[in-house]
Amino acid sequence: MSSKQNRNLLMLFLKSYLPVAVLILSVSIWVIYTQKRQYIDLVSSHEMNLAKGDCVALSAWVSTGVQDVGVIAGLVENSLRQGRSLRDQLDHIADMFSVFGRERDICLQLRYISLQGKELVRINMKGDKPERIYGEFLQNKGERSYIKNALELKSGVYVSNFDLNKEHGKVEIPFIPVLRFLKKVYGANGEALGLVAINYSGEALLRMLNNSSKESFGDVFFVNSQGGWIIGPDTSYDWRFLFGDQDSLMKDQFPLEWQNVLAKPMGQFFSPNGLFTSQSMCEDSSSSLFGLDVTFHERWKIITNVSHKKLLVPQSSGSLLLILTLFGWTGFLFWRRSVSSLESERVTAALKESDKRFTDVTDAAGEFIWETGPDGSFVFVTGRAEDVLGYSAEELVGRSPFDFVDEESSWEVRKEFLDAAQEGKSFRALEFKFVNRDGRRLWLEFNGVPVLDSEGNVTGFRGATSDVTMQKKALQDLQDREDMLQSISDSVQDALILMDDKGLVHFWNPAAEIIFGFSSEEMLGKDLRSCVWVEDNINDSGDLHEEGKELKSLFASYGSFTINVRRKDGSVFPAEVLLSPLRKEEMWWVVGTIRDVTERKEAEDALRKLATTDPLTGLSNRRFFMERSEEEVEKALRYSRPLSLMMIDIDFFKNVNDTYGHDAGDDVLKALATVGLKVLRNVDVFGRIGGEEFSILLPDTTLEGAELVAERLRGEIEATSMKTRSGDLSITVSVGVTTFSEKLCSLEHLLKAADLGLYAAKDAGRNQVKIQLAVAEEC
């Protein structure tokens, strides 16, 4: 061929091919950029959700410790106010600690510590077996920073730094990560008595955060306020900061990134080391989750890092190779076309057939390109097939695609190809399981068009095949995760709900159906406040509970609170509600858990009754009588309202016990209490303050009214036949009456005056009422 012909051929080729090459290049660049952008957006969103989820899990774990130390501190305060000896109090506290430790498998240690830092009670948990430490083995922790910091607080819970457990100044091996929760306990008069401290093992929490790395596209770090590695780039970095080792802080490895992380509590940014996502948990952003005033020693941060290498779109090298192959094939096609234009008409038909064949192949471009003949065997395969199936192009030619189909998919593959051949139609995105040369099963996606002869009969197919194994696995993993979350939701005993920003329910788990009696179908799209009635949450003062006067504002808040809710059958029960915010698709949602705490409330009521009533008569005990009386004296003094007091003693009660026995004496005391309750008003305070000695406080009652009540009570008791285990007995009482005045303006003076009146009634012959209006030391 002459040089002029060569120039003409080159000019013709360039004129026809360059526009196509530019178009292919532009489309390829756009596709690659779009794939990269979408993939980075997917990774960014996934890492942000992962970090938020880990932070929520961390907050929930810490919340458990905060609530537990609050409950234990309350029980210790109740125990210390019983008036028992110090040894009995400490033994009772140790018993409570032991019971609690067996219930919390993450609990390592429970302590009651004096204000000087001395351990008074210490329970070490060995598995589920509590071990109490005595005597000289109790340590003085007064110099420990967490003790000093906790003692400086007036109220609330102190959460220590996350470190390793130490015994006798040495770190325990193997490492045991520990977080401490401390709270002051107070006496009846508000004086500080000491500290309750609970040590919780963080092994399960750190194991959960380590497992979270498997879900991340990169690595998950867990650091403290100074950037100390709790979970680092690898296990060799963990806890280095406690030993002063090199590279123990995040700023040593990632100085630029650490500055960005410190700039704000949560965020996401790119750096030379890849994509970083950070979430912080501290008292500023999370204390509302705990329902208590919480002070943290340090701020913890959960950080994920995805390197630039891991931000590359999977199979991007395959896409690049495909583009290069496309350029090669189209270039070759246009070169052949240019050559054909200069050749004789003899090759025109062959050129058109070749052009059509390669155009079809281009339209169905994938991992590898192929063509089958009339018998269904490969007649053409590109070399890329060897990377997928493990067979070279030469080995595949003459063999049927059915030779490599997994046995489970064999019939479906044959049916799809036979249907396409009979109908002469194209097929796209057919996914089947194949077996490669090494016996590994993989998913392949087929796209193809039929090859027709001059009469329109199908003589084969041309198409492309892609390996979609990773995509199938990702979809399956996602489905498995959703199934796992559904299983967790179905198995928990607390009601789990999801509400939108209007308070409408979008998720209602089986436990919610059991607790409330409403099915999921009945509640989806309904307002949760249909289960909460205003009248069920009104206290004696006519206001709603402490969470606010409107239920709407109650459910717009976040954190933990207790409220009365109503089942479908109309029954009302107390429930503990925990609400957490969730932002998804530019919209705020609320995730809530609701727990039936009926048994806990009944136990609290029982403990309250036990602490305030006399076990024999059911009347107010001495301590509760004194507390109520002090309150009524304060009201009388403040508002100038009348107030009277009676002291009652059974005449010759010792003779009853000596003659008929103490069982009969107990029956007499109970019968007297029954008679008194019939005579007195609900507002009167009736208490047993001694063996056979009773006292009655009469609010808003003058001396004349008190005398009438005393005479009526004395007469009723004298006229009543007391039924006892030794038969019916009759008794009389002596009564001393006094009233509030300028001379008797304190509870102490009222009690002394009534007592003097009581003794005057006894001296006068018993079974009578005497009034006493003065004492030796007046106000």
Radius of gyration (Å): 42 Å
Structure classification: alpha+beta
Inertia-based shape: elongated
The major sheet is characterized as: 8 strands, mixed
Strand fraction = 25-35%
Number of E-type strands: 32
Low-pLDDT windows of residues: 283-288, 344-351, 361-365, 540-549
The helix content, as a percent range, equals 40-55%
Ends apart, CA distance between termini:
134 Å
- What's the pLDDT, averaged over the residues? 83
Task: Give a summary of the structure in a few sentences.
The strands form seven sheets. Strands 1, 2, 3, 4, 5, 8, 9 and 14 form an eight-stranded mixed β-sheet that branches. A five-stranded antiparallel β-sheet has the order 11-10-15-13-12, sandwiched between helices. It is built from 22 helices and 32 strands. With 779 residues, the chain is of the alpha+beta class.
Can you walk me through this structure?
It is a single chain. The protein has 22 helices and 32 strands. The chain has 779 residues and is α+β, with helices and mostly antiparallel strands. Strands 1, 2, 3, 4, 5, 8, 9 and 14 form an 8-stranded mixed beta sheet that branches. A 5-stranded antiparallel beta sheet has the order 11-10-15-13-12, with helices on both faces. The protein starts with a helix and ends in an 8-residue tail after the last strand.
